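If you are new to this repository, start here. Below is one unmodified record pulled from the training split, so you can see the exact layout before writing a loader.
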Amino acid sequence: MTTKANFPVAAGSIVVPYGHVIGNEKWRGSEIAQRLQGKIRLIFEDDLGLVDFHISNRICILYISEADLVAGDEFKRRLVRFRNASSLGGIVIVEKTQISDQYFFAVQKLVVLELGMVLLPVANQGEASQLIIQLVREQSKDHSSNPFLRKQCSQLVEPSVFRTVQRIPGVGKTKALLLLQQFGSIHQLCNASVEELELVVGQTAAQQIHNFLGS
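And here is the target side for that same chain:
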């Protein structure tokens, strides 16, 4: 279901009801919007500025498409402007394809090392929509305080989330499965310490994962 409504802006951020996503109007009619329909409530706003989607009052998503990467440096200026002007937690979703792969290392360096934000690669908008759905559901439940919910989440993890974890340097299918079984979600994985990661994948891979996610 997609509707358009006006929500108050507090401290420079949109107020997001639980289980909802507030999307930039430019995404209306997109593949992401179509795939989110029926899974979560999507509300469009005209004035989100640099942000593509708000998934909570404190966390938003900036989406970098294959076309953005190929077109030049405008997306870099956008990310820097966001980081300089906002106190929100930013998750950067990037389309990592055969065409855009050559630009990915530079994007990773900018997003993770220079701006201190979380970077999640996806193959296309379909994968991105599945990732957004999981992130929104994580905001509505406290998996860390309920081991059953965390275990259940890892068992029912979306294939797109599994593929995203596999793309982290030093992580293959086996380690991706172990990580999701242990942490249950992308959100918990991003918040894990090096020490917690070491217990699952060893010291070298733990450091690579921690550096990549910018935890």
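Two things worth knowing about this chain: Residues 55 and 136 are 6 Å apart (CA to CA). The beta strands are 2-4, 9-10, 13-14, 20-24, 41-45, 53-54, 59-64, 89-95, 118-122.
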